[in-house]
């Protein structure tokens, strides 16, 4: 019985020694790798889903995760305490693109590796994953070769129900569509609506613009081709 108590006490006292230099190196390396991942995100992410705040978050998240892992070390009690503290946090920010989730998990993994002092794993892993991401983007991997995707942007007055107003046009001219974002413009006097769309065959820009002009009182309309849109069903 005495031996069991001693072994339990010994287990509680075993913690990773954290020095000032380990904190500086671990958090610093995670910041550098996080900056690289944010740079890669800027290069491969398409315009409709790009978020500057997410770029900043990727760097911060890598550093925070690294610091958390350094604090926890091998102390199980700290780990459970941290889980309990973080369980009260609720995040309600919508993720615009599934690719954003991959970048978030990548920065968390980088922070965990740096925080647990697996520096070589963090560097090599980041390098290999970055190469794969860049190659998929460069060769437009798994793109649909039979269709083109566009961003349809238009402006409405605030009192217009844009969803019901646009539905007949979208169903008439596009084989698939998905709303990307909605925001107010011109100091809140107008509403800009952007859709990711896939036009039907033999549909001209003029047909779309002429029809749109009847709906939005001849306000701004644009149709831009993109390499990849936000998942159109």
What does this structure look like?
The chain is of the alpha+beta class and 233 residues long. The protein folds into 2 domains: 2-138, no CATH class; 149-226, Alpha-Beta Plaits (2-Layer Sandwich), CATH 3.30.70.260. Helix content is 56%, strand content 16%. The protein is built from 8 helices and 4 strands. A 4-stranded antiparallel beta sheet has the order 2-3-1-4, with helices on one face. The longest helix has 25 residues, at 20-44. The N and C termini lie far apart (63 Å).
Task: Please write out the topology.
Elements: H1 2-13, H2 20-44, H3 52-72, H4 76-86, H5 98-115, H6 119-138, E1 149-157, H7 162-173, E2 174-185, E3 190-199, H8 205-215, E4 221-226
Helix pairs in contact: 2-3, 2-5, 2-6, 3-5, 5-6, 7-8
The rough form would be described as elongated
Order of adjacent strands in the largest pleated sheet:
2-3-1-4
Give the end-to-end Cα distance, rounded to a whole number of Å: 63 Å
**Count of DSSP-assigned helices:** 8
Number of domains: 2
Radius of gyration from CA coordinates: 25 Å
Mean pLDDT: 80
Compute the number of strand runs: 4
Describe the sheet with the most strands.
4 strands, antiparallel
The chain-level structural class is alpha+beta
What is this entry, summarized?
The chain has 233 residues and is an alpha+beta fold.
Keywords:
2 domains; disordered N terminus; Alpha-Beta Plaits; four-stranded antiparallel sheet; 233 residues
